[in-house]
Write a structure and sequence with these properties.
The protein is an alpha+beta fold. About 50% of the residues lie in helices and about 15% in strands. It contains four helices and five strands; from the N terminus they run E-E-H-E-E-E-H-H-H. Strands 2-1-5-3-4 form a five-stranded mixed beta sheet, with no helix packed on it. Strand 3 and strand 4 form a beta hairpin. Helix 2 packs antiparallel against helix 3 and helix 2 runs parallel beside helix 4.
Length: about 180
């Protein structure tokens, strides 16, 4: 049976174990996922606090697609206890990596070939346009201020694509005609 656990802005799809499993096991799994201390958050289902860690989960009347709220105090969600990368941040990182992989595989070889002989005006315009589109896609990626890894990787990706564009434009500007 799958339930949804809401934690801040995240929604975690969570497979529940057997109905006779103690609540503590669920709490432990969620603690491992969120990196919150096991005693620093509350679980709430249908308006009731799920507080008896020794009770079987069947006592809480959970059914498929139920929603459980995971609530922790602000001081327990400090950066020291926050997950290294949340599911949302991992999604953003995946988007950044995908964009950079696309640029490296499809545009970088063409840019390298153009730099060897920068004489084709249409090719310069095509590559410049595609690199600018990539920069715009990277610029459109919104990261939370606390997502240091995503912010750094986005910044590095922008620098790499911008460097490619600068080399392309410099080769075009200094070409021998």
């Amino acid at each position: 049976m799958t339930v949804t656990v809401k934690w801040g802005k995240e929604k975690i799809s969570f497979d529940l174990p057997a109905p006779d499993t103690r609540l503590y096991a669920i709490r432990k799994s969620l603690s491992d996922y969120t990196h919150l201390p096991i005693d620093s958050f509350k679980l709430i289902h249908a308006g009731a606090i799920m507080k008896d860690d020794n009770a079987p989960i069947s006592a809480y009347d959970l059914h498929p697609n139920s929603t459980i709220a995971l609530i922790g105090s602000a001081d327990t969600q400090s950066s020291a206890h926050a997950p290294a990368t949340s599911a949302s941040e991992r999604s953003i990182l995946s988007t950044i990596h995908s964009e950079l992989t696309s640029v490296r595989s499809s545009l970088q070889p063409d840019v390298a070939a153009f730099l060897q002989s920068p004489t084709d005006k249409k090719e310069h315009a095509r590559l410049g346009e595609l690199l600018l589109q990539s920069l715009l896609r990277l610029d459109g990626i919104v990261t939370e201020p606390s997502w240091e890894q995503a912010r750094k990787e986005r910044k590095d990706a922008v620098r790499e694509v911008q460097d490619m564009l600068d080399r392309l434009d410099n080769a075009w500007a200094t070409r021998s005609t």
